[in-house]
Fold each of these.
Amino acid sequence: MARDPLADPGPLIRRVYAYVAYRVGEGAEAEDLTSETFERALRYRGSYDPRRGEPVAWLIGIARRCIEGGRLGPEPVATAGETADPLDVEGSTIDRLTLAQAVERLDERDRELIALRYGSDLSARQIAEVLELRTNAVEVALHRALARLRKLLEGDEAAQADTRLRERPSTL
Amino acid sequence: MRGFFRRKDEGLDLERELRASRPQPRDEFVQMLEDRVHETPRRATRGGFRIAFVGAITACMLFALAAVGGLGQAASAVGDVAVTAQRIVNTQGPTIVKKSSAASQYGKPAKKKIKKKIKAKKKVKAKKKVRRAGRPRFTG
């Protein structure tokens, strides 16, 4: 009998949710898509072939199709950065929100790579299997995506520093 | 703001930050989904059962057909179909048998016969000429 891909669902749920949330933003939509992914996984549980990859890679493949299916409607709206007031929260939370906002500003391809690598914690080889690319190509694309993200974050920081400088004379 | 996204040598490790700030689902949501997964029975043998069922039905049908000679009938029917198809597809004209009793009785085509006769006459004439040429002239 084949290995059950959903034998230990807890960590899988967290990894799939993280991937989906990086793609569409945290919140209800990410939860809906994660639920849909697991519903489909339960339906096709018997068709899972362990020779073709880890259960998490199989689930991420399903999640990707769920997201693509959901994309037929209107574009998802970012949630984390818009609902919270950065002035009211701790520094680490601000960092997290800034990072989430920067990730949301990346293009679709970069966001997907970031979601696969740092959301679902897949290796470059596993990402290559999911995206049907070569491992080397994935590594290069990830490096570029990180460079673009870093640039966005540095731009944000510079803009914020500029704003603070402009606000200072008025407070004095 | 701490500016955590500075370069690595200045203290930033963007990869570490991305992992640390990975979106986390609500515990209730995870629990609810875990329960859903656990309460759904696994149906791994479904595909295998289907294949076995189809195999059994096929075997039963073959056994029943073999019992009444259906297999032979089916084979001959297939053969008939093949022959018919060949007949339809075949565009070659009628085959003319050259060496047959009829052909030897009626001989060869007329044209060839005439030519041969002419050739034979010519040969005879030529022979006569040769004979005439060989004899001394009649002087009377």
Amino acid sequence: MLRAIAFNLLQMFVVLAFSPLAAGVLARMKERVQARRGPSILQPYRDLWKLFHKDQVLSEQASWIFRFTPYVVFVAPLFVTLLIPVLTDYPLFFAFMGDMLGGGFVLALAGFFATLAAVDTGNPYGPVGASRTRMVGFLAEPVFMIVFFTVSFVAGSTIPSIVQQKWVTPPANFYAPSHLLLLLAFLMLILAEGGRIPVDNPTGHFELAMIDESKSLEYSGRGFALMKWGGYMKLMVLLCIYLNVLVTPWGLAQGRTLAAVLLAIPLVLLKILLFLLVLVGIESSLAKLRLFRITEFLGAAFITCVTAMITSLLNF
Amino acid sequence: MNALTPFLDNLNALAGGLFLLCAFGMVATRQARGCLNWFILQSLLLAASAFLLGWLHHSVHLFGVALVNVVAKPVIVPWILRRTAPAEIYTRREIDQALNIPTSLLIALALVIFAFFLAQPLAAAVGPDFRGPNVPIGIAGLLLGAYTLTVRREAVPLIMGLLAMENGAFLTGIALARDLPMLVELAIATDGLIIVVIVGVLTRAVEQHVGTTAVGELASLRESAAETTGREGAE
Amino acid sequence: MSVLIILLLPLLAAVLACVRGHRLWAPVVTVAANLAGLTLAVRLVWATAAGHSATAVMNFGLWRWIAVDGLSALVLLLVAFVGATASIYSAGYMAHGDLKPEKLRLYYANYNLFIFSMLAIPVLAEPTLVWIVVELTTLCSALLVSFDNTRAALEAAWKYVVLSLMGAGVALFGFLVLFAAMQATGGGVYTWGGLVTAAPAMPPVLLRTAFVLILIGLGTKVGLVPMHTWLPDAHSQAPSPVCALLSGVETTAVLYVILRLLPVMQAAPGLRAGTWAMALGLASAGTAAFLLLQVRDYKRLFAFSTVEHMGIILFAAGLGGAGGSQGAVMQMLSHSVTKSFCFFAAGAALLTLGTRQIASVRGLFRSSPAAGAALLFGALAIGGAPPFAVFLSEFSIIRSGLVQHRYLATLLLVLFITVAFFGIMRHVNRMVFGRPEAGARGSLAAPVPLPFTCRLALLLSAVPVLVFGVWMPDSLHALLRQAAQTLVSP
């Protein structure tokens, strides 16, 4: 049992430690594709270090929510890592505390606090971004629900680790149409929730066009560092769910020894790297959608999900 | 062959699922060229499904159907359109449609669910070796094609809706009517091509004489229309 | 063998009409080919009525798909007859428009292709091939409908093409389901005859679905309510000889396909296809009769009358039994010849007046006696006045309805026929009688004299309209009886 708790904490630590690396790699690859040199892949670590050593500047009008939010945003993805399969094939100690829906709600909690904090300071750009984030979130929620429902329906459970088994054996299940359509729908969801192109421009500095970035506009010092790190971790958590459950449910530790679990770490990082390449391809070839077209984008994701559910229903 | 059967079944179902997505794409896309591309993709998926079903049932007919679909629709239809219809139809975007796109998608979804309910008794009546989701998806493709026809106003999406209806009927046909003679399949394919020719010529005529390719907006013939003195025999 | 020649003649004419030459080359070729086709068709009908099947020798391989029995021979004869008279009419009518020679050649080539596609419908026995040919009729006639290239004509052609092809897509699905039903009984030849024999063994769900789909799909092409919205536009905007073809025989030929399915449906237990057919027929007849009261264009008037008559034919076929089927085939015959005559008359009026509006025409009889007389004659005939052919067929339908104790349905039918008659006569009377107004809209001042061929065509098509109301040659009578028999389930 101690070992199970230790592995769970190891998972948390892996996500904590490697998420800035993932963000750094993504930024550098994107710049490389555009024939620029790009920042070093360790730059996010240096940024976080710098920010932790700076003072915070807080507005006098801000309430406790403003000070509390960075902690929520930081802790929520960490909490979710306890529930999902990051390194191991089998459910770990805390995995039964919450299923996929629970994980989704925890992430939504973080988003909720971030929205409130953006409105809290009185900066005009905060509420603009917050309302847009809510719009995207409001449209993405049904898609999330249907994806989770379809996945659970097909696999017969809502615990991610158990769901993941369904697509490993028998191998023909991997090619089931519901699975492949779900891959497409979830990819569109990640683009929406992670604030990537075509939904939002993560590197833009133009406040009027910001959607996700606006939540950290007013933060500085430690608060800003926590918000950034929380953002990196959220993306990594989504990627872990996507890759380890849906896309490549192999390569996770099957044994219960420390060696097996440690071996899984580079494999998971490799999977994330490959996916980041795909993400760079998508981001470099599409343009950002106009705000009102985002509804159509998410509508398309919704339709894909429902088609996945329908084709899975038909095979019974 | 037995070991491969679930694998092939799944691939066929995947082709069907993507076929349905293409039909949705045709409802939702704004650009004329995009509609044409979705149609080409849909035809290729139809060919893939025919190929897989032919493999499963050892039927040469279906291989022929697949071949015809790969050649006729993705290649010849765009070529014919380019020759007969005026070139500007490719650049048209429908800025406003009869219904906005999310609503259209939801209605299309309702039509698909309706199609699946329709397909249940049919599938039950046909027999035990009836494979996969072809029948419901084919009926859904038919209904979505008809829906595209009613909602769109530009010429190319209208033509694509027509051809999509035929694709849907065909997808059902390759599962239901597997032994249809090759001659008939070829004739149906040729028929599709003639449709494109004639409609292309009509579109060109409309563009020349009426001045727009938004053919769905031509709606003036009614009892109360102020009729001009129509001298017969073109002046 | 003669069947193949009948089919090949229009194809040959279409090819020849494209040859550049004298201005009269294309019309002469068309008329000659159609007249030859008519002669061969008459001979075929004679042989079939006497009991020799024209296609008995061709019972192997691909030729199994060509079969001519009583009903097919009747439709073939109708197509050939109207095709011939309309080609004679076109020779004079189209020459009047000062068209460019290429456009005229295009017209005749298209015309011949259209005739070919319509001739092929009754001849083919495999339902999917028949579907293909029905689609071909839409495609060949699309450019004919839009021939004038006015905004209205193009709109009518576009609506026609889109709605017909949409219906054809649905019908294709129905035919494929029918094929699946056939396969579920364990195979058998997929022809009309094969379907009738295999019908009792087919799963009723499939049969019902196929019937509904084909009824809706092909019903769009026939013009049954509520899929009729394209018909008044297309059948009024086309040039008059084309209108005669469209209204006279094309809708009849497609209705023939639906009627071929009725015995198949009736052989299967519990399907009540007859009741469906009767209900749809009554709906069409009723809607058309009431819509016809408020038309403003006299070609649309006749187009609505087509919808009404298609409804009556479907009603009679649904009625079933010896009397109903006999009435249906007789109505097909009388409607085709009469409706083509009506459109010839309307074309004559249009040529003379230059306007399609009913409101701007008065005293046609005085300004152009030929056109006025023809219009009046046609209106009376199509409305169902005695002693014309339509009266006889409608009377036999009503009588068989009463004999079969369907009192309510027959009463409704009589009501609709009366309303339609009243509507047609009111409009036509206003046009024909009275004195021509000076300074009215439309060029009544110098009426164009009717070309000789138009008059000839009018005369030729008037003959059956009058004659069949009182007397019918024996072989034709025998043919009608054979045709009626194929409609009744064995």
